[in-house]
Amino acid sequence: MPVVDADLQPLSFIFGDDGLVPNNAMPLLVYKRAIELDARHPEATIEKLFGANGWGAMWRNGVYDYLHYHATVHEVLGVARGNAVVRFGGDRGTEVAIAAGDVAILPAGTGHQCLSASRDFSVVGAYPPGPPVEITRPTPENHARALQTIPQVKMPQADPVMGADGPLVRLWTLPS
User: Fold this and answer.
1) Could you tell me the end-to-end alpha-carbon distance of the chain, in angstroms, rounded to an integer?
2) Bridge-based pairing state of the strands 112-117 and 122-127
3) 107-131, pLDDT tens digit by residue?
């Protein structure tokens, strides 16, 4: 199992609905230097951790350079190689520098867009069990649909980094 500091706490960001990107009342969580990566197989290190915590449907790539969100699933992004600046929360969101070993956990509806990246930037993405991911662009029609689908997205059973007792389980609560 990849080495993770048991006392690790994520940074937390909450973004409001901007009229095109719905975002979510639950926070984006960013773990800095969360995973001690195997230098020869960093993607496999992340996949093993995410899989052990019940997150699957994994892929390897980067982060799209256009603004988008996922209205039917939550997403985790584990940085395997390189670094990037990603804006989370839409056009009025927050720019976050991420690098190898960092992990970002996005609740459904959270806008994200890669603004710049090193040539070797590589990410492993994964999702908790549920419907397949859909890439949604910010339009008024998509926003209206997302407001219906986001509240129906099930809560993950575990934090993809820290497991069933991880911070996500405490910090992500459905609005009452």
Assistant:
1) 36
2) unpaired
3) 999 999 999 999 999 999 999 999 9
How much is the CA Rg of the chain, to the nearest whole Å?
A: 15
- Bridge partners, residue 84, by sequence: 98, 117
Residue 70 Ramachandran class (φ > 0 left, ψ -120 to 50 alpha, else beta): beta
Q: Determine the length of the chain.
A: 176
Q: How many helices (H) and strands (E) does the chain have?
A: 3, 9
Query: For the segment 64-99, what is each residue's pLDDT rounded down to a tens digit?
Result: 999 999 999 999 999 999 999 999 999 999 999 999
Q: Rounded to the nearest 5°, which phi and psi values hold at 10?
A: -80, 155
Helices (H), 6-139: 42-52
Confidence of residue 59 (pLDDT cuts 50, 70, 90): very high
Residue 33, by phi and psi: left (phi above 0), alpha (psi -120 to 50) or beta? left
Pick the CATH number of 11-156 from 3.90.550.10, 2.60.120.10, 2.130.10.10, 3.40.50.150: 2.60.120.10
Domain boundaries, the chain: 11-156
